Fold these 2 entries.
Entry 1:
Amino acid sequence: MQIIRKIKTTDSDHISLKIPKAFMQRSLEIIIKPIDDIKMTSMCSEQWPKDFFSKTAGSFAATPLVRDEQGEYELRNSIR
């Protein structure tokens, strides 16, 4: 069984969810549960290794990023 968990902060009375194609034409259970007791900082710290930012901060300082030429714009037929 595939389960999708999304944590969203709302600023309106609507929520939009994009579902995988495998879920289309199926009955879905949607549960909305407030999680005010969970701090966002604790969630972020679980997603990143403990010293990730200290190891990666300034990692491109000696080698600046360069954007290559983007080429010619593709001409397309107009929609009628």
Note: DSSP finds two helices and no strands in the chain.
Entry 2:
Amino acid sequence: MSSLEVKDLVVSVEGKTILNGIDLVVESGSVHAIMGPNGSGKSTLSLAIMGHPKYKIERGHVLLDGIDLLKLLAEKMKLLGVDDSFITRSVNDGFSGGEKKRLEILQMHMFQPRFAILDETDSGLDIDALKVVAEGIDAMRSPDVGMLLITHYERILRYVHPDFVHVLVDGRIVRTGGPELAAELESKGYEFVREALYAGRA
């Protein structure tokens, strides 16, 4: 069984710490959803895992079957003479929001990755496009593929049912549960998580 492991990941952007020690293991065959309010660090997590040069790894590791992905990426970029700016370039230019999302899912199907990190795949989609994209994600599910699905909203999780839901607040995973946690967040919002988290610190 393969695994994508994030260990004690601390990430800063322009001197400001965004992630404060993320620990997460995604095993092949499982779907994990990351939810959280704006500014909690969800996109920072995905971009840091992908090696975006703007996101500085202060501490921690990202391991794919025990191999340090960040170190491997740096080594391969150096070997091939690829400048850091290549990672920041836009792809899929000229497409509408829905077209970009569908193309991303198409690419995922063509590449057949062992692990997929989907950052706000539901953003800007109408209900019909959302269903198409969700069906594409669900069709990728297999014992050999692990997925990390980052989203603000519960609506995509009505179609793609995660095995685990993690709540990210202030750069930390503060709560983990099953699909029912996403429904609870949808009905109560994120404030109830903050209140529970900081109740004992007053």
Note: The helical segments are 42-49, 69-80, 85-88, 97-111, 127-139, 179-188, 191-198.
